[in-house]
């Protein structure tokens, strides 16, 4: 049983790392199709108190990269995303807090340009 749990954790970490790498690419066609579902999953991770901090950090990093490379896709999701990021900021882990600060900066740039 423990082997399956470890395997599941490793698969989840690998999937989040792949999404992080993919978020850095300028593949607008694919992101136009996958953005809403991906953002939904990432914000659910942020909202889930049972999830490990590592997954929340990956989620925030992915959102950061999406904000950097695909800003226009956030138009319909800005309030939801900000709310979930603010909620995740309450985490005591410094990695989550650092990712939160960077994402807040990117959202300010997005909103006031």
Strand-helix topology:
Elements: H1 2-23, H2 28-47, H3 53-69, H4 78-89, H5 94-111
Helix pairs in contact: 1-3, 2-3, 2-4, 3-5, 4-5
Q: How would you describe what is shown here?
A:
- This protein has 113 residues and is mostly helical.
- It has one domain.
- The protein is 79% helix and 0% strand.
- The longest helix is centred in the N-terminal third of the chain and has 22 residues, at 2-23.
- The protein is globular, with a radius of gyration of 14 Å.
- The chain starts with a helix and ends with a helix.
In short:
The protein has 5 helices and no strands.
Key traits:
single chain; about 110 residues; mainly alpha; about 80% helix; globular
Structural class: mainly alpha
So what's the overall shape? globular
Q: How much beta, percentage-wise?
A: under 5%
N-end to C-end Cα span: 51 Å
- How can the largest sheet be summarized? none
Number of helices: 5
Unreliable stretches: none
State the domain count: 1
Query: Percent of residues in helical segments?
Result: over 70%
Question: Which value, in Å, is the CA radius of gyration?
Answer: 14 Å
Order of helices and strands: HHHHH
Number of strands: 0
Mean pLDDT: 83
